[in-house]
Design brief:
Blueprint lengths: L2 H13 L3 H8 E8 L9 E2 L1 H14 E9 L3 E3 L2 E12 L6 E12 L2 E8 L9
Parallel strand pairs: 1-7
Antiparallel strand pairs: 1-2, 3-5, 4-5, 5-6, 6-7
Helix pairs in contact: 1-2
Amino acid sequence: MTTQEVANKLVALCREGKYEEAYNELYSPNIKSVEPEGSAWPTVQGMAEIAKKAEVWTNMVEEVLESEISDPIVADDYFAITMKSKVKAKGAPEPMRMDEICVYGVQDGKIVLEQFFYTPVPQEVA
């Protein structure tokens, strides 16, 4: 698949909420996932670590109230999308809005890099 085809397929699957299918079909086994400095999420490498990260997220979210994923912008072996959502976290009094820019790197028809850009929520120090 070309970078454009990978980008279009990822957007289509994410809009349908088929994230696991996207990982299985489009991601390289050696995927690297990078979060912003200061976020609660670590940078991870490999499908096993991506699966753990996805499981933690799924267990945190009670309900997705809104979700919007842009069409991709493609340049060479990279593409970017925006994701905007409103989610209700388990135990949280109010829903929270999340906006991020997601940049993906593609090699040999597979996503080898995902990097997320957003303003992290300040973490409390115990």
